[in-house]
Amino acid sequence: MKANFNTIEELTPLSEEDCFYIADRYKTSFTYPIHTHVDFELNFIANASGVKRIVGDSETIIGNYDLVLIANDKLEHGWLQNECVSKNIREITIQFSPDLFFTNFQNKNQFDSIREMLKLASKGVCFPMSAILKVYSLLDCLSSEDNRFYSILSFFAILYKLSLFIDDVTFLASKPCTKVFDSKDQTIKKLQKYILMNFRSDIRLEDLARVANLSTISLSRYFKQELGVSVSEYVTKVKIDNATRLLLDTELAISDIATESGFNNLSNFNRQFRKSKGCSPSEFKEHYGKTRLII
């Protein structure tokens, strides 16, 4: 089995002092790659019929509405554009720490159903339409709630209402963590990790060859064989993926985003971004309307 070169490890904006993070965005396309992250995630999507949802080894073409809970830091997941032609997609993403309901005052009987739901969601769960209807009004208003105390109560209420539907959910991945790596995959993961940690600086082929314990010639051939792209193409993709996230999640200037993504030349950044996304960085940012809130 070849490694999935699109898979990245996302760094969420949550700190130890935060309860949850919510991003409420309107968009015309799905561009973020398959990924994993330490924090749990509840993801709601509307008006996106034809999108392909991937969770572990599960691939599903979704309808107009989709609500999925991911409670596993190693479970690969993502939504791909596929055949979706909607220009009015709404996505509400809530991320929260795995220990939120397993420590402190939340470790009480009143939270039993939520904790049980989170344990069962280690394979990823998809909620039925009946559950979506129960929580939609809360989801719809959560990102615009001015009072942070009430926003936490609404967040708890959403999870509790969903936990009452656990017998009606669809389990997605066949196993909690479906990817089993052989020795070659482990080498690829080492290379990917090295690139992810160092893409902002110049990455030399010699450095990657040392990581993989290969000659530079063998490394280039091996990388292309396993991932289907050259080392330079992969590094550029990692840089563009980072820039995409910064465009969506920050108000940084385009020039600063280019620098933060490892591009020393703004013209080259614009050229590479347009080649990858079909539009300029500024045009890409304009296509997304987004509310972000950390509680």
Say which CATH homologous superfamily of the largest domain is assigned: Regulatory protein AraC
**CA-CA gap between termini:** 40 Å
Q: List the uncertain runs.
A: 1-5, 179-183
- Helix share of residues? 40-55%
Based on the coordinates given, report the CATH architecture of the largest domain: Sandwich
Query: How does the helix and strand content classify structurally?
Result: alpha+beta
Placed side by side, the strands forming the largest sheet appear as 11-10-7-4-9-2-12
Please give the CATH class of the largest domain: Mainly Beta
SSE order, one letter for each helix or strand: EEEEEEEEEHEHHEHHHHHHHE
Can you walk through the features of this model?
By secondary structure, this protein is of the alpha+beta class. The protein folds into 2 domains: 8-171, Regulatory protein AraC (Jelly Rolls, Sandwich), CATH 2.60.120; 183-289, Homeodomain-like (Arc Repressor Mutant, subunit A, Orthogonal Bundle). It is 40% helix and 19% strand. The protein has helices spanning 112-120, 129-142, 148-163, 183-198, 205-212, 216-227, 231-249, 254-260, 266-277, 281-286; strands at residues 8-9, 20-27, 35-36, 40-46, 52-55, 58-61, 65-70, 77-80, 89-96, 125-126, 170-171, 289-294. The strands form 3 sheets. It has a 7-stranded antiparallel β-sheet, with helices on one face. It is globular. The model is unreliable at 1-5 and 179-183 (pLDDT under 50).
